[in-house]
Design brief:
By secondary structure, this protein is an alpha/beta fold. It folds into 2 domains: 125 residues, Rossmann fold (3-Layer(aba) Sandwich); 136 residues, NAD(P)-binding Rossmann-like Domain (Rossmann fold, 3-Layer(aba) Sandwich), CATH 3.40.50.720. 37% of the residues lie in helices and 19% in strands. The chain has 12 helices and 12 strands. A 6-stranded mixed β-sheet has the order 2-1-3-5-6-4, with helices on both faces. Strands 9-8-7-10-11-12 form a 6-stranded parallel β-sheet, with helices on both faces. Helix 5 packs across helix 10. The longest helix is centred in the middle third of the chain and has 12 residues. The two termini are 36 Å apart. Bound molecules: 2'-monophosphoadenosine-5'-diphosphate. The site of 2'-monophosphoadenosine-5'-diphosphate has 14 residues, from helix 6. Pathway: Metabolic intermediate biosynthesis; chorismate biosynthesis; chorismate from D-erythrose 4-phosphate and phosphoenolpyruvate: step 4/7. It comes from Amaricoccus macauensis. Its EC number is 1.1.1.25. This is Shikimate dehydrogenase (NADP(+)). Belongs to the shikimate dehydrogenase family.
Length: 276
């Protein structure tokens, strides 16, 4: 090992909006580590070449985001069970022996956020309703099954995408009509919004909350300086409700530890730094 500063990155297309450099930058300063974590924009057609060059350029690892999560998995030489099961990677480690390790920490981040922010929540208490069928949905469905949810119900505006997620995971997953989600929401122990509804002011709720019982946990992958309308409405009804910022922060922990050698804390100071 040389004495060069440690390097890691996040690659996506586009990448300017990513908050990951704020997360890792905060930790690098806080732990006094000589290192850099930078955004690297790679167009889809440039990804394979750019990715393969990263270890030669001194990168110890990289996070990968949309649209490269599947391609990164395909280019890895060593794939974690999580990444294989989800079918996508978000955390890549370039090892000194030349191997490329692919992991997916989105499900870990999802569960760590809920355990942190809603310790009373128990995934096994009843079925989980997952709204949306994109990449985040896949990682969350896998995490909920692993955490003991007896069944996962997926509802998506475009039913074919929900069917594709259900086919991918098989047993224990049921597809519901998007219009029916509201009617069954009251029977779920956990309700997760993975759609982009709620990012823009004035958008409708993914499902109405008036029939929910007090034990249900409502969570959103969306986050911002203010709670999303969905999370705010759930809190106003006295329900446990957690937004998605903690998922972003916790999913970053394993990568930081592998690349920079310190297991970092997710705390209020980090939240403030990322939302500033
Ligand atoms: P990600 O990978 O972050 O989950 P994505 O693949 O773009 O992002 O998925 C976005 C999700 O939000 C999808 O489930 C999408 O539904 P469709 O599959 O029907 O597109 C959902 N979504 C976006 N806008 C929506 C809206 N106005 N109403 C309902 N669902 C919406």
């Amino acid at each position: 090992m040389t004495d060069e500063p440690r390097l890691a990155a996040v690659t996506g297309w586009p990448i300017a909006h990513s908050r990951s450099p704020l997360v890792h930058g905060h930790w690098l300063r806080r732990y006094g580590i000589r290192g850099h974590y930078i955004p690297v924009a790679l167009a889809p057609e440039a990804f394979a070449e750019g990715f393969s060059a990263m270890p030669k350029l001194g990168f110890r690892g990289t996070n990968v985001t949309i649209p490269h999560k599947e391609m990164a998995l395909a280019l890895a030489t060593d794939v974690s069970d999580e990444a294989r099961a989800i079918g996508a990677a978000n955390t890549i480690t370039f090892r000194e022996d030349g191997s490329i390790h692919a992991d997916n920490t989105d499900g870990y981040g999802f569960l760590a956020n809920l355990r942190d922010a809603a310790p009373a929540w128990d995934a096994a208490a009843g079925p989980a309703l997952v709204l949306g069928a994109g990449g985040a949905s896949r990682a969350i469905v896998h995490a909920l099954r692993g955490a003991g949810a007896p069944e996962v119900w997926i509802a998506n505006r475009t039913a074919a995408r929900a069917e594709a997620v259900a086919d991918h995971f098989g047993e224990g997953i049921r597809v519901l009509d998007w219009e029916r989600a509201e009617a069954v929401a009251g029977d779920a122990a956990t309700i997760v919004n993975t759609t982009s509804l709620g990012m823009k002011p004035g958008e409708p709720m993914p499902v109405a909350l008036d029939r929910l019982s007090s034990g249900v946990l409502v969570t959103d992958v969306v986050y911002g300086a203010e709670p999303t309308a969905f999370v705010a409405a759930a809190r106003a009804r006295g329900l446990m409700a957690v937004d998605g910022l903690g998922m972003l922060l916790h999913q970053a922990v394993p990568g930081f530890e592998r690349w920079f050698g310190v297991r970092p804390e997710v705390d209020a100071e980090l939240r403030a730094a990322v939302l500033a």
